[in-house]
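Worked example 2:
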Amino acid sequence: MDKEPAGTVRDRERRDGANEADGSGRDMARDGAPVPAGDALAGIRFDDRGLVPVVVQDRTGGEVLMLAYASREALIRTLAEGRAWFFSRSRQRLWRKGETSGNELAVAEVRADCDGDAVLYLVDPAGPACHTGRRSCFHRDPPGRKPPPPPHPDASSGASAEASPAASPEASQTPTPEPPGPRSAAPGDGAGAFLTRLEALIRDRRRRRPAGSYTTALFEAGLPRILQKVGEEAVETVVAGGHQEPARLVEEAADLVYHLTVLLVARDVSWNDVMAELSRRSHPAG
């Protein structure tokens, strides 16, 4: 790792005029918005380079998206703007996530850990967090590590997440047991939390590709097959909606939502992106 004398980051920021004071002990972001950094950052323990590690987590799904470092000024800007700022150790400068790619991280909350030597950004991502185009930077297993076996289902949980698709005669292999699924949602569990868990399960299937899983079979068959299944389930939902009992409509809608989630994951899109678009439409300009 590169080494830097203590205080260098802070000194550089002062020379650049990025960290100003208004004479009242309140630090100022570059745009002039006052931020009470003396209070907000009092418990943060920066290292001898003036940096602190920052874990970035999706606030809705809970997925860890990336790890970076922030200086005092980066934290001040993040708190002032609600956008994720960091300090690049390689380029030795402040940078904002999405400043070139457009994949910004809207910061809903900033937390410090119990020792004050690490920070958490809870964010709403506008796109992939990783420079490779993946949703999360943590998409690789360490070299030589064997993926853990799938957990055994809870006998009391009812149907599993993939029970209906896996039971289909189209499945080429006998499915292995799946974890307790989102179908057995807890009372009062919101649809958003349910879809988040379903998406996380399907992302795990794509990464590990367990033998016998219907989801694995879909991903290995490729995007054309996934698109075909979404189309088939959409037609069956329409038919159920027009001519069959409500219970049948529920079943077909569940199959459609499952296959649609597989499609979203295959295209590295999240239900969070869909919900963000729906939210945007519910607040039209003007």
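The longest strand covers residues 51-58. Residues 223-243 form the longest helix (21 residues).
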